């Protein structure tokens, strides 16, 4: 397979050298797949292109991974003057990342929530709210926690969030207030259940029951998770570390917390036009 002419074509189209090399590599991989499927670039059909995209998607590739490969194929099709091969090709859509920070609690809202929760004197619910706010765990991670996932010492503590297969997903430091309320809750327990949080019937707390805990205070669990992420970024912690603490596979997801919130934008406009 000869791609020298294709590389020259790309350069003439204004592509950077690094992009040219990437496109050539993508086309080479496409060629190898075609050969495996008893086809070739010389006999390329629209069906081949569509099946290759289905193949990439079936291998677990995200749309953001498939897009540059498809772009290389588009350029190659233009190079061989066969634009008809691209008619009605279906490919995964790239989800656009929001450029406004997810909804989170302001400092005043957070303090009001904590005061309200503590007034309830429900040790389990207090521990749940503090743990979620100060570790940013997802609600399904919260209800899956066991006592052994909590490690507390005199001056420090950690929460181990397990992945679905039982391996260690990540370790999150436990701030002092979260440790305090967890200890109070655990000391009140007289059972031998391994689950960290129990229902009123002595069984592991279900996801729906946990959701109701948050709803009783007029919030959702993800608001506390977003508050955690936003507070970390606002404190100057680098994005890579925040991504690790929050369990994000894609750092671009974490970058949302560096974006301004709608409240930030409103305040900025007010400051500009205030008299």
Overview of this protein structure:
This protein has about 280 residues and is mainly alpha-helical. It has 2 domains: about 5-85, Orthogonal Bundle (DNA polymerase, domain 1), CATH 1.10.150.130; about 105-265, Orthogonal Bundle (hpI Integrase, Chain A), CATH 1.10.443. About 55% of the residues lie in helices and about 5% in strands. The protein contains 13 helices and 3 strands; from the N terminus they run H-H-H-H-H-H-H-E-E-E-H-H-H-H-H-H. It has helices at about 5-10, 15-35, 45-60, 65-80, 105-120, 125-135, 140-145, 175-185, 205-215, 220-235, 240-245, 250-255, 260-275, and strands at about 150, 155-160, 170-175. Strand 1 and strand 2 (about 155-160) form a beta hairpin. The longest helix has 20 residues, at about 15-35. It is elongated. The model is unreliable at about 95-100 (pLDDT under 50).
